[in-house]
Amino acid sequence: MSEEEKLVAQVIGTLQEHKGVDITKIDLRRIENCFCRFFVICHGNSNTHVGSMADFVYDEVNERLREKPIHVEGADMAQWVVMDYGNVMVHIFQKEFRDYYQLEDFWADADITRIIENQTN
Predict the structure, then answer these.
(1) 2-39 confidence digits (pLDDT tens)
(2) What total of structural domains would you count in the chain?
């Protein structure tokens, strides 16, 4: 498993643990001249939920993989938080913003995997 795949797995696990809704992985590796290799997308139920998921992703990835994002955008409003880990971009939305921007549709040529919600929670 590559370092990028480990990062994606950690992000997805953290989002699952903190009740991220409709978690989706977009593998962009076969898209020519793409600026990154993976997107991880999910949404939360409120500003507080979106902000806390971003905080948990930041903390868990840093603690377990010793990785910090290059840049984080949108944390102040927590409507759409983007975390840039170089080849992995994490998008945590409020549902209305996710529905409006429809990133999954924009990257329809990529390999898109919807993560099955953890039934044990």
Answers:
(1) 999 999 999 999 999 999 999 999 999 999 889 999 99
(2) 1
